[in-house]
From TrEMBL:
Gene3D superfamilies: P-loop containing nucleotide triphosphate hydrolases. This is GTP-binding protein. SUPFAM superfamilies: P-loop containing nucleoside triphosphate hydrolases (SSF52540). It comes from the Bacteria. InterPro entries: P-loop_NTPase, Rab, Small_GTP-bd, Small_GTPase. The lineage of its organism: Bacteria, Bacillati, Cyanobacteriota, Cyanophyceae, Nostocales. Keywords: GTP-binding, Nucleotide-binding.
Length: 165
């Protein structure tokens, strides 16, 4: 069976751990849990009858005090760049991370995850900004770890992009 390492990256408190819990265990908790270092989970996804074992590295969120350790990204086949739609600054962090990852590792498949879709009335990120990223060729998926909207889809899209490269 094919195994692929994927990483969850983004600012702190964007919902990376909640997305993994929803995807792997079909669970959601309102209780915030800070990731210390990295937490690793696995789940098999099927792409056109080909099972792929995703090794999911849930990496701590980046903030002004703690930057992403590039060593966690070694051997990564793709990543989910997670943004909290209710905090515009998390999109700025995502831009910075994407630039840094591309500078260090070249072009690795990724999907921009616009999380917290269940509370769009609180969003600070405009649709026009999301559309401009799509126009640039980025895959953008709106998700909600709480309701499950888009969660399976985003992992499937990333797995498909990885297998196409």
């Amino acid at each position: 069976m094919i195994q692929k390492k994927i990483c969850m990256v983004g600012a702190f408190a964007t919902g990376k751990t909640s997305l993994v819990a929803r995807f792997v265990y079909s669970l959601f908790s309102e209780k915030y849990q800070t990731t210390v270092g990295v937490k690793i989970d696995k789940k098999i996804v099927n792409l056109s009858e080909n099972p792929i074992n995703l090794i999911i590295w849930d990496i701590y969120g980046e903030d002004e005090l703690q930057k992403l350790q590039m060593s966690y990204m070694r051997g990564c086949s793709g990543y989910l760049l997670v943004v909290d739609g209710t905090r515009k600054n998390t999109l700025e962090t995502a831009y910075s991370l994407q630039n840094s990852l591309e500078a260090n590792f070249g072009q690795i498949p990724f999907v921009l995850v616009m999380n917290k879709w269940d509370i769009t009335d609180e969003w600070e990120i405009e649709a026009a900004e999301i559309n401009s990223l799509i126009t640039k060729g980025w895959n953008v998926v709106e998700t909600s770890a709480k309701t499950g909207i888009g969660v399976e889809e985003v992992f499937q899209i990333l797995a498909q992009k990885i297998m196409e490269t």
